[in-house]
Amino acid sequence: MNNRPPLRRSAPVETENDGIIEGRNAVIEALRAGVAIDKIFLLKGERDSALGHIASAAREKGIVVVDADRRKLDNMSRTHSHQGVIAQAAVREYASVDDILAAARDKDEPPLIVVCDELSDPHNLGAVIRTADAAGAHGVIIPKRRSAGLTAVVAKTSAGAVAHVPVARVANLPTVLKELKEAGVWVFGTAMDGSTSLYHADLKGPAAIVIGSEGEGMGRLVGESCDFTVSIPMFGKINSLNASAAAAVLLYEAVRQRTGN
């Protein structure tokens, strides 16, 4: 009788339900296997050669590498054995801005794009993507730094919309806004003191709607890159809306104008 254990086969890279991959070997294997990774968090100040190799390999692939202190890594860790490195998997590959413009051309529609300026709350980003899908927007653009990415939390909050809405992640939002304008897209930024009331903004043509961060709104350079700043009329005691709610209001005003309703 053969009592030897069965031969072990190499298993695919596994992630936790929230997309966490931790430990040096696991992260290196994920990089080798081409797993879509949103960000890699490395222990700040650590000079270990293995971590240096991970950082170099990640940057070559265009993956964001973030220095993190031990407390942050410990809080993120599920195994309590992160070895100074944790990767956060993306639920899908990022698109390019050209992919988003091509999606509009394929539908023979003027582009309708949402640009999120440093939305750090994954629930907000997920809600924006869900609304973008419902409103028929052609894509969402986010910055590489200081923004939530396409993580499992975002996917869950989007109710599956991440599978249908192209999301591009770019290094420099002002540069991309300039390129969009050169492509004939008008850029509308949301601001409490916007120069144009929402109901006077013409959103029927090619439009990119910029949604500012939860606390600070649009950054200065992003704001200066907009063709118009748009304010949403407020009639209560609170003078602003949640970022995802503001995106929904502007997107559906664009839908109303475009459908003639």
Give the SSE string: EHEHEHEHEHEHEHEEEHEH
Distance between the termini: 77 Å
Give the DSSP E fraction (strand runs of 2 or more residues): 15-25%
**Uncertain parts:** 1-14
**So, CATH architecture of the largest domain?**
3-Layer(aba) Sandwich
Largest sheet: 7 strands, parallel
Report on this model:
The protein is of the alpha/beta class and 261 residues long. The chain folds into 2 domains: 20-89, 2-Layer Sandwich (60s Ribosomal Protein L30, Chain: A), CATH 3.30.1330.30; 97-259, 3-Layer(aba) Sandwich (Alpha/beta knot). It has helices spanning 24-33, 49-60, 70-76, 97-106, 122-135, 152-157, 173-182, 220-224, 243-259; strands spanning 20-22, 37-43, 64-68, 85-89, 112-116, 139-143, 167-170, 186-190, 196-197, 207-211, 228-231. The strands form 2 sheets. The chain has a 7-stranded parallel β-sheet, with helices on both faces. A 4-stranded mixed β-sheet has the order 1-4-2-3. β6 (139-143), α6 (152-157) and β7 form a beta-alpha-beta unit. The longest helix is centred in the last third of the chain and has 17 residues, at 243-259.
